[in-house]
Amino acid sequence: MEVTRHAGRWTLEDRFRSPWHYLPFEVHAGACALRVELEYERSGAIMDLGCFGPAGFRGWSGGARRAFVITPDAATPGYLSGELEPGTWQVVIGLHRVPPGGAEYTITAEVASSPGELVPATPPEPLPPLAERPGSRMLPAAGGRSWLAGDMHTHTVHSDGAMTVPELARLAAGRGLDFIAVTDHNTISHHGELRAASGAHGIVLIPGQEVTTEAGHANALGSMGWIDFREPADSWLEAAEQAGCLLSVNHPIGGQVSWATPMKRRPPLIEVWHWSWLDTRWTTPLGWWLAWDPEAIPVGGSDWHRPGSDAPPGAPTTWVAAEAADPAAILAATAAGFTAVSASRDGPVLLRVGDELIASEADGLILTGPDGPKARIRGRLAKFPAAEGCHRIVDLTGATVALTGQRA
Q1: What are the extents of the domains in the chain?
Q2: Around Cβ 254, how many Cβ atoms within 10 Å?
Q3: Could you tell me which of 122, 93, 86, 87 has the C-alpha nearest to residue 108?
Q4: In CATH, what class is 2-112?
Q5: What is the pLDDT of residues 37-87, one digit of tens each?
Q6: In a 3-state reduction of DSSP, which class is residue 236?
Q7: Model-wide pTM > 0.90
Q8: Does the structural domain 146-346 have CATH classification 3.20.20.140?
Q9: Residues 6 or more apart whose Cβ sits within 8 Å of residue 365
């Protein structure tokens, strides 16, 4: 076993110089595994953890873990298994918060030559699929499309979530969702588990990555490689476009994780509805949307991490009128603007279908457009002429319960 240690004190000056710092260790030819552990003073400090090999990105766990293991065949969630290339590797430390007096740290990197010396934790046993689940909601659609209910923003143990990919798939299927995007922070290690979990639990799992920095978070949606969060946000958009994928600005009005990143061009999507829209009588997220890019396509996300901390998957629900229930078709329909967002999967929903606006399960509520209230909604399925601009269903207090995009 070869051991490398780095120790010292990070200061505010270190943080001002760069948010990311790199500590090297060597991996010899024929190495069977490596393990890295970070220890630091917790009083006022928050440090993130990641790793790069000679060939590039090998994983990121942010502040969710203090240690990780990588082997050719398995790795700690958030990290990529595979060949341990000989040469200089780098432990990445993200200085998220540093107290005025600084914070002492120790990094220990171990490299094993014998199989079995260092192994990641064994994942839990697979869960059986649900015996029963809610049936799909049948909503009017046009052109051979079907409205699918989903969530564009969820997390697992591959970043700071509490559930494995199969556990999340099972939970979302049990809530009647047709799809979810799995968007762990600054990693793609979960992508390899999506196909099996999707098949086992009967729900479409869209690969994603939440590109996460202090100045803003953005979801990259689709099958693509890792996006370097250390680069400017315009490069995230360029990387997504080159891969034929989509980029979404996340929770632009979200407390200390609000969007504060300048961009030369606008991403195609915006997470207009996030669980942090706690009082939907306020129109702040709608105002931000109109100011940032009125043409941006609206989506919603629960930002699910664990029970008790966030809204559950599907709160809010993103509706996509897709030609098929698979990731490519759902993302193509999203890119074309066939989306709507509602507070829940089973509540009122407002859809654009051809030249009509259709309100479902909204009897007694109010249809409102860019210029204000337009009509009282009558019956379980009400139809109105479509018009340009964001339209919403609001209750009698003015709280938004459903919305559509701008495009007629």
Answers
A1: 2-112, 146-346
A2: 18
A3: 93
A4: mainly beta
A5: 999 998 899 999 999 999 999 999 999 999 999 999 999 999 999 999 999
A6: helix
A7: yes
A8: yes
A9: 348, 359, 376, 377, 393, 394, 395, 396, 401
